[in-house]
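Recall the central idea of this unit: under ordinary conditions, the amino acid sequence of a chain determines the structure it adopts. In this exercise we apply that idea directly, starting from the sequence alone.
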Amino acid sequence: MNIGKGYGWTSLSQWDIAPTDAHVERKTVETGLSKDICRFMLVNRVEQDGGYLRCEYVKKTDVTPEILEMAGDT
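Accordingly, the structure predicted from this sequence is:
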């Protein structure tokens, strides 16, 4: 999973509402105690002044196999 500059994933909590045109993937996560479905939204992290990153969500219509490859696994 890419956590630096460029394309990557951000997790959504059960209370988060992603934009309707955002690319969201679901993944089943199992631990020894529980099993749940987690949601991840594809984002592009753009560098800001002072070394900060701003996340911009990626629209479903803009997603390409190259972007998904750069983002890595959820």
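DSSP finds one helix and four strands in the chain.
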